[in-house]
Amino acid sequence: MQRINLKNGFRKNLPNFLLLIFTLMICLLVFEIILRFTIQKPYGCFLYEKDEVLSFRNKPNLSYTFKTNEYEVVYNTNEDGIREQEGFRFNKKGGEMRILTAGDSMTYGLALNKQDTFQERLEKKLSAISNKKIEVINTGVSGYGTKQTLDFLKMNLKDYEPDMVIFSFYNNDVMDDINYKNLTIEGGCLISKNTGPLKKFLYFHSRIFLLYQSSKDYLIIGVKPVRNTLYKIRKVLVSIGLSEHAKLKYPILERQETPEIYLSWQETLNNIKGMDDLCKENSCTFILVYIPSRIQVNPLFREDYLKRNNLKEEDFDFHKPPNRLRQFSKENGITFIDLQDEFSKLNIDDSNLQVYYSFDLHFNKNGAEVFSSILLKKITQLYKTVP
Q1: The pLDDT of residue 289 is above 50
Q2: Please, are residues 153 and 141 in contact by the beta-carbon 8 Å criterion?
Q3: So where are the chain's domains?
Q4: What's the CATH number for 43-205+249-382?
Q5: In Å, how far are 113, 231, 257 from 315, measured between CA atoms?
Q6: 151-172 average pLDDT score
Q7: What is the pTM of this model?
């Protein structure tokens, strides 16, 4: 008799249940429509186009405005797909000094308007003290590692005829050299070939999913009560063996190096050597710059991050990448600039000069300004006088 009552109750409430589901679907649909007017697709769906050699490259003739909670920037590219207003291929004039900058998003100036990039600031500084016409060209491509950068230079260096090439190395370059072949352009977006079909569908078609993807990081990092609760839950799960410890975003900072990272480092260094050799073949000066991450230059941030993630500082060597690059540069006669060392000399943390955004990993305007000043000093030292 009780089973009959339960069945009858289910049948009686089925219309209400279906109405609830229908109402939720309508609400989600309305919410999705609203978000399509307020939430942008990721910049990876606008900045790139497919390239047979480089896998992907900057989209030419781009004009795209991107907004976050921290900044609003405009990304423009010329007909060659570099972040410049005019073309520089095949048109160098006598008496000009031309500096070509190459690398990833730190070079491209992601999260910065063009006038705030280190290239624009360096060009103004050099022009103010030089009798020559100075051109500092931004050929950076967000997501490039050393292999793609080397291939780009092989394809384009002679066309630009630079007197100097500045390559900016960031910690993810080693991993980019491993992973870039797994990236492809699909549906106009740069996406991993290993992305599952459901996630891929949501990525392309659902603004609700994109809102979730963008807001989860903010909740974890930016809202302290939520962040602390999630860290405590993870700590409990780790203690009972149901979860792994958190890991730093950049495995090259770990003292214990995996065979994969070791081999990728060797390829990365060979690619950097290839850039230097290419520059020598074309009578230009090559400069290697190391750009540190926030956790390397901000002791308070590092201490807090390691503590809340239950990580031990002795498991990491935050000077390992620049030390390796410095030794490599010394052995191969490459001019090397260590921004981590330079930032320490400037006492950036002690003077409360913040050079990174709070949530975005890239330089803010202060970071680009400091970077340009350090480059100016190094360039004038190289030439012994104003070039």
Answers
A1: yes
A2: no
A3: 1-38, 43-205+249-382
A4: 3.40.50.1110
A5: 37, 20, 11
A6: 96
A7: 0.87
